[in-house]
Amino acid sequence: MYLSNGPIDQGYLKRAALWVATVFAVVILTMSAADAHIAHDTPRCSTSNLDEQSGHDRVERYIRCMAKSFQLNPGEAIAVAECESHLDPQAYNKPYAGVYQHDEKLWPRRARKFGFSGHSPFDPIANIVVTLRAVMGGGWGPWGCA
Q: Tens of pLDDT along 2-43?
């Protein structure tokens, strides 16, 4: 292959293509890993039997574990949830829903931002993780019980 500046080293082209493919793969894998980390709880926090019908003790244990893993104050996280919903994943005070009483209009955007697109605010795992991620970035300000 020739350009106006002379021949192109085929070995150089292969190395350059391999380098570009490697960088691209690392970027894609890193983005996927980051999204997975946002969307799912840490392995230390058990989600067994945690669903919309979960009792307050299970919800409290999950909040405590997740708050610790996000380096937030577990007592404060539990107190806010207790005030907002009495730790009830099914709590609904129109238009607020779930453990941390997210506004139904704002929930889809918040859920998508933190890796829970399509999840209901009544999903306690999604509600808790989205809330704690939001608090990490901006504090408890939006929650009236904080």
A: 555 666 677 777 776 666 656 555 555 544 444 444 444 444
Residues 19, 56 within the same domain:
no
Domain contains 92: yes
Residues 111, 126: contact at Cβ < 8 Å? yes
Residue with tokens 């939006």: 142
Query: pLDDT digit string (tens) for 78-123?
Result: 999 999 999 999 999 999 999 999 999 999 999 999 999 999 999 9
Sign of the Cα pseudo-torsion (99, 32, 49, 45, in order) = negative
**What's the angle, vertex CA 121, arms to CA 116 and CA 122, rounded to 5?**
120
Give the residue among 63, 70, 35, 71 at the shortest CA–CA distance from 47: 63
Does any domain span residue 144?
Answer: no
- Among 141, 144, 114, 142, smallest CA distance to 127 is for 114
